[in-house]
Amino acid sequence: MTHKTSIHRLKLTDFRNYATAALALDGRHVVLTGENGAGKTNLMEAVSFLSPGRGLRRAVLADVARVGAPGGFSVFAEVDGIEGEVEIGTGSEGEGESVVRRLRINGTPARSVDELTDHLRILWLTPAMDGLFTGSASERRRFLDRLVLSLDPAHGRRASDFERAMRSRNKLLSEGRFDPAWLTGIEQQMAGLGVAMMLARREMLGLLAGLTARQDDSSFPSARLALSGFLDEESDAPAIEIEDRYLAALANGRYRDAAAGRTLEGPHRADLLVRHADKDIEAERCSTGEQKALLVGLVLAHARLVATMTGHAPILLLDEIAAHFDEGRRAVLFDRIDALGGQAFMTGTDRAMFSALGERAQFVTVRDSVLSA
Ligand SMILES: Nc1ncnc2c1ncn2[C@@H]1O[C@H](COP(=O)(O)OP(=O)(O)OP(=O)(O)O)[C@@H](O)[C@H]1O
């Protein structure tokens, strides 16, 4: 049985175009409609700050505070969360380079933003992700890592520790300091972290494949997912052996990497390969509408996975989700979102696009930075 997590009160201060705004929600899905530039995406971005990271725009904190505001921004929410009712307050403090994120849970400062995942999981799909299949490998990698992170909060720490170790190796090599003991120490760290990252990504793909294989409607086609670009041939070997092989590759690649000015082999070079399962063609060769449907199918499958693994349906932020689809497909989409059992926030310029949701959603109008339910 999946429990619902939902936000029932939201208060923003100096967040983007909002000086102050408050919204009382009744637990249903939330449809935000309003003209272009009204502040719909900003409101969803505020919700996305109730999860670790930089929010759905991957923003620099200093850009989020309202232009002209004297200090930072704040987002306050009352949430019916994984561990019951909780009050979450987050925001920014400081100026210029030294802006930092603050988080309070039930009024007490949190040790780390990762604590947010004890209370709720938030997933999103934005128009900026439309070019995922045709864009760069680094965007797909980031997308995959976010999928992994939602179930394995330690993945972010592993990735940043790997980055740090790799930077120090690159620096030593670029300075011509081929000290074997020093390099081996760093490379051991990289091998442990890099292989753990690869295995966590692979595990996520395995879990998703199990779910999408059982998907039963054709409106949102299944994707077949694979990893490539890092230790591809090492699929069934024990982790320790894979680690040894990567360690040897790093040691053997020192002069090559020094000449290239970067580390040529590692989890930072992996790519997520996506195919339209029924048509058996690469996602990048699908039509725009098919690509959007594949992406929606993927995000919904992931949401289902998070609900199954945690026992709590995640909160979904779906920016301009309805625009690409015809009426029939929209109705199927809303049914599938609803069947997940969580609370979804959706935006659009036209309220009529969401009529198939009927009583399942609360409609909120955004006009001139004012919210009215
Ligand atoms: N830090 C900021 N301070 C003040 N205003 C900002 C800030 N950042 C963005 N804005 C403004 O917020 C407004 C609303 O942006 P938002 O992306 O939420 O619009 P939207 O309703 O989603 O529009 P669309 O339908 O076009 O996607 C924009 O006019 C933007 O210039």
UniProtKB/TrEMBL annotation:
Keywords: ATP-binding, Cytoplasm, DNA damage, DNA repair, DNA replication, DNA-binding, Nucleotide-binding, SOS response. Gene3D superfamilies: P-loop containing nucleotide triphosphate hydrolases (3.40.50.300), RecF/RecN/SMC, N-terminal domain (1.20.1050.90). It is found in: Cytoplasm. Residues 26-367 form the AAA+ ATPase domain. GO terms for biological process: DNA replication; DNA synthesis involved in DNA repair; double-strand break repair; SOS response. ATP binds at residues 34-41. GO terms for molecular function: ATP binding; single-stranded DNA binding. PROSITE patterns: RECF_1 (PS00617). Transmembrane segments: none annotated. It comes from the Bacteria. GO terms for cellular component: cytoplasm. The keyword DNA repair applies. Coiled coil: none annotated. The RecF protein is involved in DNA metabolism; it is required for DNA replication and normal SOS inducibility. RecF binds preferentially to single-stranded, linear DNA. It also seems to bind ATP. Belongs to the RecF family. This is DNA replication and repair protein RecF. It comes from Ciceribacter selenitireducens ATCC BAA-1503. The gene is recF.
